[in-house]
Design goal:
Blueprint (H helix, E strand, L loop, with lengths): L8 H25 L2 E7 L1 E17 L2 E4 L5 E6 L6 E2 L4 E5 L2 H50 L5 H47 L2 E3 L4 E6 L6 E2 L6 E4 L4 E8 L11 E6 L7 E12 L5 E8 L11 E18 L4 E3 L2 E8 L2 E6 L1 E5 L3 E6 L6 E5 L13 E2 L2
Parallel strand pairs: 1-22
Antiparallel strand pairs: 1-21, 2-11, 2-15, 3-10, 4-6, 4-9, 5-8, 6-7, 8-10, 11-14, 12-13, 12-15, 13-14, 15-20, 16-17, 17-18, 17-21, 19-20
Helix pairs in contact: 2-3
């Protein structure tokens, strides 16, 4: 006879239920009274620097696309990406054969206009001399008529000759003015063609670095088409996206630490150069430009970096590791070890650094704060027994 057979049928029906109740009771006992393994650190005083973090990319403040101003065949590209260039350095050259011929034609036209102007000035001088002679003849004839030596017909003829000479002088002066304007037009036309000839040479507007080469020699390029991309290397910064809730704590000139993802074990000093004035409507973040004092040896434009901006510094502050701070209904707090049991304490935080948080209210020096070691059930309960390894 088995042990189960000694029980009545009614009792046998209750045995599975009793076993379930026993298991649940054991689980509740363990959850309530068994000690949960925890991390534990003591609240101490120390120095802390408040930091605001953001993620961004390395950018240049000044960036220029080198493109032609005229449509022409690209004859030569003299630089390549990663080349450093100087202001005024020749970067690329267009085919300038037709432009040179146009400049030569304009130069010849200017020479012809100047020759015409010289000839017309000579004609004006001749007309001036004729007028002077006609004026002398007119005065002489008038004196003879007054002395009754000559007739009035001779005086009329002298007057007519004087008027004709003056008209010729006026026409010569008008021709001189027109020739002068033609010279000016020819000069400006030559300047225009010389300037267009200068468009065949694409030069660097400033000292910088070629970051991209888009075209090679042989093809026809048009205004606005990119041949090269140039950046100024004297002002490189990280354009970082920062949460809008941190805006009040930020200001230009604040020190910063930049960690490039290509060199995660090294930080580079910098400072806030400027703050953006527009927040992204979706992410609720805005741009903060952080100028870097020194870059990694193999930096690349657009590479990612983490930015930590120092917003304040305290000495002899009450601090706890930031990973021990938890949030409950929007309020910060920590679990403390009180008589071997977990107890929840709300706190008021001050500066927050990369790893530490300043506690202004809620804790005293020497208390122990704890956090669960259980990755499956990391949350602690008020009054739960805890044990630190």
């Amino acid at each position: 006879m088995t042990l189960l057979n000694v029980f009545t049928p009614a009792l046998r029906r209750w045995i599975p239920r009793l076993l379930v109740v026993a298991v649940l009771a054991a689980a509740l006992y363990r959850a309530r009274f068994s000690a949960a393994p925890v991390h534990a650190v003591q609240v101490v005083r120390g120095d802390i620097a408040g930091e605001v973090a953001g993620t961004g990319t390395l950018e240049s403040r000044v960036k220029t696309v080198i493109s032609p101003r005229i449509q022409e065949r690209l004859a030569e590209v003299l630089v390549d990406q990663s080349d450093f260039v100087k202001a005024g350095q020749l970067l690329a050259r267009l085919d300038d054969g037709e432009l040179r011929r146009q400049a030569d034609v304009a130069e010849a036209a200017l020479a012809g206009a100047r020759s015409t102007a010289d000839r017309i000035r000579v004609d004006e001088a001749r007309a001036q001399a004729v007028v002077q002679q006609a004026q002398l003849d007119h005065r002489r004839t008038a004196d003879l008529v007054a002395n009754q030596v000559s007739s009035t017909a001779d005086l009329d003829k002298a007057v007519e000759q004087l008027r004709v000479a003056e008209a010729d002088l006026d026409r010569a002066r008008a021709a001189t003015a027109e020739a002068a304007r033609q010279v000016i037009t020819a000069e400006r036309n030559l300047d225009y063609h010389r300037e267009r000839l200068g468009f065949a040479e694409l030069r660097s507007p400033y000292d910088g670095l070629i970051t991209r080469r888009d075209r090679d020699a042989g093809g026809v390029v048009v205004p606005g088409s990119a041949i090269l991309q140039l950046i100024a290397t004297n002002e490189l910064w990280i354009s970082a996206w920062v949460d809008e809730t941190k805006a009040a704590a930020l200001a230009p000139g604040q020190p910063a630490r930049v960690v490039f993802r290509s060199t995660p074990d090294q930080g580079y000093a910098g400072e806030v150069a400027r703050l953006g004035r527009e927040t992204d409507r979706e992410t609720r973040e805005f741009v903060v430009d952080v100028q870097v004092d020194r870059l990694p040896p193999n930096w690349t434009l657009g590479q990612r970096a983490e930015v930590f901006i120092e917003t304040g510094r305290r000495t002899n502050a009450l601090v706890v590791p930031l990973r021990f701070v938890q949030w409950n209904e929007g309020k910060p707090g920590v679990w403390i070890r009180d008589g071997g049991r977990a107890s929840w304490r709300e706190v008021r935080l001050g500066l927050r650094g990369q790893d530490l948080a300043e506690v202004l209210e809620g804790l005293t020096e020497g208390q122990w704060v704890v956090a669960s070691l259980n990755s499956v059930r990391p949350e602690l309960k008020d009054g739960q027994r805890v044990i630190a390894p």
